[in-house]
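Budget justification, computational time. The allocation requested in the original proposal was used primarily to generate structure tokens for proteins on the priority list. As evidence of use, we reproduce two of the resulting records. The first is shown immediately below.
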Amino acid sequence: MSAYNKMSVKDIDVSGKRVIVRVDFNVPLDDNLNITDDNRIQGAIPTISYLVNNKAKVIIMSHLGRPKGEFKEKYSLKPAAVRLSELLGKEVVLAKDVIGEDAFAKVNALQQGQIVMLENVRFHKEEEKNDPEFSKKLASMADIYVNDAFGTAHRAHASTTGIADYLPAVCGFLIEKEIAIMGKALENPKRPFVAIMGGAKVSDKIGVIKNLLDKVDTILIGGGMAYTFEKALGRNIGKSLCEEDKVELAKELMDEAKAKGVNLVLPLGGKAAKEFKNDAEMKVFKENYGDDWMGMDIDDSTIELFSQYIKTAGTIVWNGPMGVFEMPNFANGTKEIARLVAESNAVSIIGGGDSAAAVEQLGYADKITHISTGGGASLEFLEGLELPGIVALMDKKVRNTFVAGNWKMNKTPNETFDFITKLKDQVKDATTDVACGVPFVCLQKALDAAKGTNIKIAAQNMHYEENGAYTGEVSGPMLKEMGVEYVIIGHSERRQYFGETDETVNKKAHAVFKYGMKPIICVGESLVQREQGVTDDLVRYQVKIALLGLTAEQVKTTVIAYEPIWAIGTGRTATNEQANEVCAVIRDTVKNLYGQHVADALIVQYGGSVKPSNAKELFEMSDIDGGLVGGASLKVEDFTAIVKY
């Protein structure tokens, strides 16, 4: 699973919920506090409109400028609230504070489809310090957190990461688009894959270049950073910008590119000036510059060379200008590269900053596949770094949901046959995987009724020995010959009444696999254990012992069911968050034992008074992949409702 395969606002029920949304409304203002560019506000409209249209109570939060933890009128979000109101065509109420009385009063008064904007979160120094108490107060206003501020996703602040510790956290449409397009470009690019790197300093792009060397076919280097590479080749770069302490590194990067078969292409020549100003004397040099001259832009021969790679590219990522773009006389290189990228047939991604500004100014924006809204964030993304504001969000589930009924000591063989005969018609089109765990004496009737359907049959227990003097027990070969596919082992009732231990669960798991079946392994804590705060440690221990000696391939097909003993048959249910937290602990334990790919494949069920009324919210949590259902699995209509949650 990609580190950025995150749940979006579409993956969670927002109707009637208080939803707090982190946006990036850090917009430029003139001296009269009028917004001069509202692109960032417009970028958040799809997410906000979706929430309003789906009857959420919307709370907006953002920063603006650098108020350094103090209330300063010139950094108020009032202009942003006014502009957002205009764009949406509905009132956006601005609170006078962030976590003060006015903010809470306005949030508490929210009706479905209404919007409140909190004041600048950076009026509190606790924001940039990611203070837990500040995060908690923000979280206390809402039921769901949505991050749609890609431009600040590389910052671990209270409103970007801290709040996600206390609320279900998903991304908005803007972040979803950013990570989908850039993620695909890096993980599965259409080739040839060409990266264009510019800007002033090699040091700003070292990590990006190193990461891209394992992914791209060609890197075109221009801008001020090119002169450090040219000096590494022994060229005379005159007074051009050069990071002397990075010359050796530039040589190493060129050697690494050659070793990996990547074309690292430098300028053939450049426009140079005697002084760093627009109207300075100008001259074109090929490779070697005069001693008193400084490079300011790439020349026409370099544009022609670069164009050969751009025109044939399948994917292009561009970050950084080719010259001193802010000076008209030295902007041609950047303009021409912008034109070539816009006219290419490639998937084109512009990583913010001056290159994005060039594309916007020249009117090419609509011809670019994607222009990133985050300069620093997009650079870190291209560098392969994890962005804290995105990592904190819940993962999108890539596993199918699996609902298994555990009938315990209920139903006769004939009742079993009738039940499954009725059930199979109700669930035949279900996208959820379905199983029924029936008593031993009912197995044959269950298998007969389920034959040719999508319903799997599970046994409720199995001895770890193949045969022997074990009165009343059932062995693996017996179940396998019947056609049983799953075996429930380690259920709390087996542990409580029949002496099941973690060690015998492990022996049974090995036996289940030996005879070609799959185990549903139950783990969970008692009420006393939960109250003593040992749930996580206990569950980790149970999982480790249960899986001891199993291969990674076996664990991939294992099902682990988290059943809080205190919630079984009591009518009490762990909250969605409590259940998900422990299921996440199970998955994390498996990741530490077997690696991420195994943890991603593992099915983790929740069991503990699962009912039609709570199944949907439970099963949509990031680490819950269905349920091991007790009492509600004994009625066809209830079990069907859960399967079709």
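The second record produced under the same allocation is shown here.
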Amino acid sequence: MVEAIRRTALALAVEGAPWFDPEPPMLRVVSALADGADRWVAEAAVASGFALDVILPFDAETYATDYPEGAERDAMLALLLAAEKRLILPGERAREAEAYAVAGEAIVAHATLLIAVWDGEPGKGWGGTADVVETAVDSGVPVIQIPPDPARPIRILWPQFEPFAAPPHFAVQSPSRAFDGDSLEWTLRRLMLPPEEPGERAFLAQFYAETEKRRRWRIEYPLLLQLFGIRRLNRDVLVAPPYLSTTASLWRGFRADTQRVADGNGLAIARIETAYSWADNLANHFAQIFRSGHVLNFSLAAFAVLAALAGLLLPGLKRELVLLELVMIFGIVWNTRAGHVGQWQRRWLDYRALAERLQPIRALKLVGVATPPRAPSRKRRLGSRWTDWYAAAQWRAFGTPTLQLDQARFAAIRDILLRHQLDPEIAYHRTNARRMERLERRLHRFGQLLFAATISACVALLVLKSAGHPLFERQMALFVVLTAGLPALGGAVYALRVHGDYGGSAGRSHETAEELTRIRAVLADPSTPLLRAAALLEAAARIMLVDLDEWRLTYEQRGLAIPG
């Protein structure tokens, strides 16, 4: 079986060569080396060329007492010595069941495919095989179930076999297929290769082909923020700093503290940092372009109306004003077409979604037992996105962290996660909520001012008409410009508010900050155990992904279009 997995995975790696690192693929077996099936599978996998990652519930000396002295213990210790990565959990013999359960959670967290010798019956206690299988099925990890009775067939349990079915209450009820070459290839294909939905691989290829975009010519949105006193213009608006150095300055404290308490994970963290830096900075680039495109379209639409009306005040420039109006209209058409051809909206949404999937990986991996951030459950789109596949591939490439989680080191890691993970997220959402509330409020007031000015002009016109004042006839053109032009400007302001969704963004950021603050308060408690801390970090990642999903659903409905 292990050899069949190896052959199939290597064949798929060749097929997926355009998407993978040019280095030869590294296949890993993750095991707790428990006496019996765990150790047998580990030995078979190592013999087939797999690298070995070991996860132990206790320190090695304590765990070795699970084995009788002699050949069995020596075999386990030899495998432990041969392991490339070792995650030692802070279990205690006095709470043995809990320690084994935590180790089972950790194995599932770092597994792509679980092999379980299991009879399909409910477990007899916490942390047993049945419990681990339940966790795997619930986490979306496919399970190869090998019944102890050789007369019963081997099956693959995986909810993805029936993606639209209700989630199973018990692992044994999970959709399954008989284990054979076809079902194994089908399963590994969906785990290893990018989604085959139309367009997704093209989007992934475009992401791989992106270049560092330092020059930013579209500054309409930053100008809007400057105009309404939200954020000052700075050099970064026109020339972005180098991508990697920008992210490195933000991650420097995290990397330094991690190196101090969890040395041995630097390369894996650097890989995540590089991937995140690329996605985050590209997202920022296309966000500025797309939002500037919206500002330009609505502004040009309003000014085109003003140019047309200005002909009443400047009849000698009628021809020039008509040409100016045509230029503005063509500017709207060009801007809209450029946005569609360049896929500004889709690239912004995809790259921002990817960055927010990648960033929590560094924190979740450091607690050893946390599972990867999942896409929100209320997704309204058939199939999967390339961003989900890429984030899962980065999680898999990180592998099992090299770490000995004694109580002192766990306390230090918790402090790192509070200062470098949760605190910056909370600060960002609070700042964003304030800025977006201020922008929404000032745009609203400006729109009201234009509305009030229009009413004032209309009232003045009626008063002058009623009084028979000669100003009525002499300034009629001006009144027409004001009573028609001011509403055009007000309409543009309203459109910017609606399409920008600044109020909605402020509300989501405020809610996210409050939820993360509550999670932080519990995580900061020194008595919070490892599993609880992992669950809290998973909840924090899930909250941010839900916020991201709501944001994406909002902006997917606000594409760049010709105002009308």
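A brief technical remark on that second record: The CA atoms of residues 9 and 188 lie 7 Å apart.
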